[in-house]
Amino acid sequence: MEVELKRMLTDLQNLKTSLSDPSHQASIDQIRLCVENLTSLAMAGPTRRTKVKDMSAEVVDSNPYSRLMALQRMGIVDNYERIREFSVAIVGIGGVGSVAAEMLTRCGIGRLLLYDYDTVELANMNRLFFRPEQVGMTKTDAAVQTLSEINPDVVLESFTLNITTVQGFETFIASLKNKSFRQEKEGTGVDLVLSCVDNYEARMVVNQACNELNQTWMESGVSEDAVSGHIQLLIPGETACFACAPPLVVASGVDERTLKRDGVCAASLPTTMGVVAGLLVQNTLKFLLKFGNVSPYLGYNALKDFFPTMAMKPNPQCSNGACLERQKEYMLIKPARDAAAKAKMEEELSTIEIPIHADNEWNISVVDDCDANIVNTQSSDALPEGLVHELPNADVYEQQQPTTEESIENVDDLEDLKRKLEALNAH
Amino acid sequence: MRVSEPKKGTTLRFKTESCREIIILRFLSLGLELRTTMEGWDPTTKSTLTQIPLLTVKAGPRDGAAWTQRLKEEYKALIAYTSMNKSRDNDWFRISAANPEGTRWTGKCWYVHNLLKYEFDLQFDIPVTYPATAPELELPQLDGKTHKMYRGGKICLTVHFKPLWAKNSPRFGIAHALCLGLAPWLAAEIPILVDSGMIKHKDDAVSTSEA
């Protein structure tokens, strides 16, 4: 369009110089002014809103946060504006991760860190978020493009890398540790990590990083057959880590071997992806803004509309060393935790004005409902209905003491071994 | 159903619609056999698998000196497996570390179908969570040619190999991944790719381009 407008201007100029009659000059100038206006409009493109300094609760059409701030007025959230202090890292910007990123962006999250190494393909168009004109862009670039248009207040950082390689992992860890956004924050530079990856290997890498950094994270997954999914909260040392037990998946009743990676093998639905992203971000908001119950595990079986829940304690024999360290730390602060819980309970009790019954002849006491629910916190062997393990447990095996024969073998130098293999490779 | 390594002149003996099903059957049984007596297996595969040394050091590329120890075990297993293949006239791959840390590996693998040899580049990285998770074996030249593959040419190991790896971690190494992951994948996929015309033998490719 710009080219045509430019040509029009040149034509007008030519017309003006070629016309000897000065009476037409004024009208030509008027047309030129119109074209120039059109040109500047075309150059400006779609209007982008400017950044807002404070979240306003004022209910006007032009306030992007009015409906969110209303959560406060309704008493759901104590202080919604705190959301601007939070940083969330999203690993995997696919069917779930991209939608989760958009939801958090629209909620006005402070900062998003996005990780992916893939590019947008036409095959992604059955899911939400990415648009056909973004085909060929990296998923991180395309996401930043869309998200910054939706909400310029959100600080976006993107990383185009594969976290499972040694180098990618180092960058991943360093970016989580970076506290430039909010220096006074304790621990890492992020409040929550969301794993939205499509394969077991990458989940294990997120698990490794979060165990090492003592970083709370949430895992999400959609089955390869696209009809079930789950979300899971993982607090290092406090809940089971991803390596504590073989990963849990929702039994779809079709094929138990679900939770596969994305790619040509997998089916996907925008609906299931959207539902799981919604559950994940809902749990994220509840966790960050402290309202409602944060689910430790929530499954979704689309065929039966069944939502199994459960909680898992960490495995004292977990194969992940960092997990065992976090478990030890968690046990060490148990007295402090108990004291805090007791203090909180006493505080709540003190608010009750007077006991209804002054004496309690029969020692009748009311049992907290929570105690009954703890039954659901069970060992990984007994799973609630509708949940299954994706992979088998590693066989227990005796660590062999190096025999004399082996120790002779161990004398072998790495370079010698390399040469030996190369010699075999040579012919 | 018999299981065999890719071998010169081996023809595809299992013909069903989905090759994945075959692999499930073959390797679910292998998972059981490994723990028990490996009965019902052809003697070649049984002895191949039992003769690849199992690894003992549980260490990944970020574990410093322990990783060097693990790397030595990886080399020993690969040397044993390669020597065994050669002695049985069943040589089918070359692999060597592409960096001094031993975290990236490159090489070749080949498969003989109807007396013609098809050769492919082979590459993979050792993941940071190794050996809890298996390396993702890549055949970049076959990227986009088969449904049993993910982007970048990573072969689909999920069904036939991953459970086996999870069960035997950390005793399985690179050699086991090649023997139980790549070999059956080639045996199942290459004949289909050749018969459907997706891949051509290099001699055919040359003659067509000349013509």
What does this protein structure show overall?
The complex is a heterodimer of chains A (about 425) and B (about 210). In chain A, about 40% of the residues lie in helices and about 10% in strands. Chain A has about 425 residues and is of the alpha/beta class. In chain A, strands 3-2-1-4-5-6-8 form a seven-stranded mixed β-sheet, with helices on both faces. In chain A, strands 7-9 form a two-stranded antiparallel ribbon. Chain A is globular. Mean pLDDT of chain A is about 85; it is low at about 255-265, about 370-380 and about 400-410. Chain B is of the alpha+beta class. Chain B contains six helices and five strands; from the N terminus they run αααβββββααα. Chain B has helices at about 20-35, 45-50, 65-85, 160-170, 175-195, 200-210; strands at about 95, 105-115, 115-125, 150, 155. Chain B has a three-stranded antiparallel β-sheet. In chain B, strands 4-5 form a two-stranded antiparallel ribbon. In chain B, strand 1 (about 95) and strand 2 (about 105-115) form a beta hairpin. Chain B is globular. At the A-B interface, helix 7 and helix 13 of A face helix 3, strand 1, strand 4 and helix 4 of B.
- In the predicted model, the low-confidence regions of chain B spanning at least 5 consecutive residues are 1-41
β-strand number of chain B: 5
Spatial separation of the terminal alpha carbons of chain B: 43 Å
- What class do helices, strands and sheet pairing of chain A give? alpha/beta
* Major β-sheet annotation of chain B: 3 strands, antiparallel
Mean pLDDT of chain B: 79
Order of helices and strands of chain A: HHHEHEHEHEHEEEHEHHHEHH
